[in-house]
Design a protein that fits this description.
single chain, 439 residues, alpha/beta, Rossmann fold, 6-stranded mixed beta sheet, 4-stranded antiparallel beta sheet, 12 helices, 25% helix, globular, binds iron/sulfur cluster
Length: 439
């Protein structure tokens, strides 16, 4: 096996906790009675509804578009009737504009037929990606067609598919790499054609040897001189799946300051996004379903589920047999970068990769104390920042001065808070600082 790659600075080793779901095959959740589609699922302008209340819609139909600015359309995940255009609970904001659709179980199923994508030009492929509403599924939800159109002054020579999945608990990408490896690799070939380049690396942490084997086999079978695709095993170290750290691990190139990966000739997509791009291009299927992990000791039956975007977490919980008496905290996303939520009436969006139902012994609720200046947070920070200084300045009411400590380079990975012996909520301090400091 090739040597394990990793990034040079910082990083931590939280308990992986993937054993609850790593061996569970992806299961398709039955279509819920109702779905709620948040109109702002991507970075950029939210969608404007193109349907009206009481209108009948068909699975895959466009129900919202972005008329101005950055964005992608939104599609109906089910056939049914629009019952409301209003507000829904949102994991990060209190509420957000949404479209609610009541499922029509009598509607004829929608079927997709495969087509030969090789016949499409680069422009046609890009248009299909945009029209299918593809965004970065594993990250912040950046529209994929924009990432696939790097500025001409930054020529790209390398595609990286991110299969690191370094957040504890989450196994959705792991299962897709095992069960859908050929589809992911076909997605990589499509992306290479769009970018007009030939080199693709697939980064996978070494705690997923079965995924490394499956993806290596698929890559070897599909590689050609015009699409050289290879798996790069990565050392297990959080946040190995962060874009800048992944690029440095695999290529040795360091993305400067606030620059994009294309500044060093690289484009990064998540493995699940590559699969969605393949579905958009080969099948003409928009992005309205996603694989997510439901895990933790607080859920009766942990699972890797294929769900319709817009499915309420409460419906998922009911399908999985409810919560357990041990449930102490619900987190949307992973334990390192996710957000605690207080309601189950939240719909899944295109970027929801997991919901964790954590028991008392899976969380640390101990109170925080004063900084003891041990310096551990400095050692752990992969960006070389000074989290303790940021926190001290915020506490002293001088948050606006934290720009000099690089607060805007912080991507809120949580390594600093994880190692802090005083249990200081360093990421929350950073978020406060970002609101008040000037770039
Ligand atoms: S959360 Fe920010 S400050 Fe803390 S380790 Fe991560 S990048 Fe550094
Ligand atoms: S790890 Fe915690 S206690 Fe140690 S220097 Fe950083 S903020 Fe202070």
């Amino acid at each position: 096996m090739a040597p394990l790659l990793t990034f040079p600075k910082g990083g931590v080793h939280p308990p992986e906790a993937k054993e609850l779901t790593a061996a569970l095959a992806i299961e398709t959740m039955p279509v819920p009675d109702e779905v709620e589609l948040i109109l702002g699922q991507h970075i950029g302008a939210p969608c404007t509804p193109t349907v009206a209340v009481k209108e009948e819609v068909r699975e895959g139909q466009v129900i919202g578009t972005v008329t101005k600015g950055l964005g992608v359309p939104l599609h109906a995940p089910v056939s049914g009737t629009v019952t409301a255009i209003g507000m829904s609970a949102h994991p990060l904001r209190v509420s957000a504009p949404s479209i609610t659709i009541r499922t029509n179980r009598e509607a004829a199923p929608v079927r997709y037929a495969a087509t030969d994508w090789q016949k499409f030009s680069r422009e046609e492929l890009l248009k299909k990606v945009q029209e299918a509403g593809i965004i970065g599924i594993g990250g912040a939800g950046f529209p994929s067609h924009v990432k696939l159109s790097p500025p001409p002054n930054n020529p790209v020579d390398t595609l990286i598919l991110n299969g690191a999945e370094c957040e504890p608990y989450i196994t959705a990408d792991h299962r897709q790499m095992l069960e859908k490896s050929a589809e992911i690799v076909e997605g990589a070939r499509i992306i290479l054609k769009i970018l007009g380049i030939t080199s693709c690396h697939i980064g996978i942490e070494n705690n997923k040897p079965d995924a490394i084997a499956a993806m290596s086999q698929a890559a070897a079978a599909a590689s050609t001189p015009s699409a050289r695709i290879a798996v790069r095993p990565l050392r297990v170290k959080y946040p190995q799946g962060s874009e800048k750290q992944l690029i440095q691990s695999i290529t040795g190139r360091k993305v400067p300051g606030f620059a994009l990966p294309s500044a060093v000739g690289v484009v990064v997509h998540n493995v699940s996004t590559a699969r969605a791009i393949r579905e958009a291009v080969v099948l003409g299927k928009p992005l309205y379903e996603k694989v997510m992990t439901l895990s933790g000791k607080g859920i009766a039956r942990p699972a890797n589920l294929l769900v319709k975007v817009g499915t309420r977490v409460s419906d998922i919980v009911e399908y999985l047999g409810g919560v357990t008496p041990q449930l102490a905290k619900i987190v949307m996303g992973g334990p390192m970068m996710g957000f605690a939520v207080s309601t189950l009436d939240i719909p899944v969006t295109k970027t929801t990769s997991s919901v964790l139902f954590l028991a008392e012994d899976e969380i640390d609720a101990s109170p925080h104390s004063q900084c003891i200046r041990c310096g551990w947070c400095l050692d752990a920070c992969p960006m070389g920042l000074e989290p303790k200084e940021i926190a001290i300045h915020v506490e002293a009411g001088r948050a606006e001065e934290t720009g000099r400590f690089g607060v805007f380079e912080c991507f809120e990975c949580g390594c600093c808070a994880f190692v802090c012996p005083a249990k200081r909520p360093l990421v929350q301090f950073v978020r406060l600082a970002k609101m008040k400091a000037k770039r």
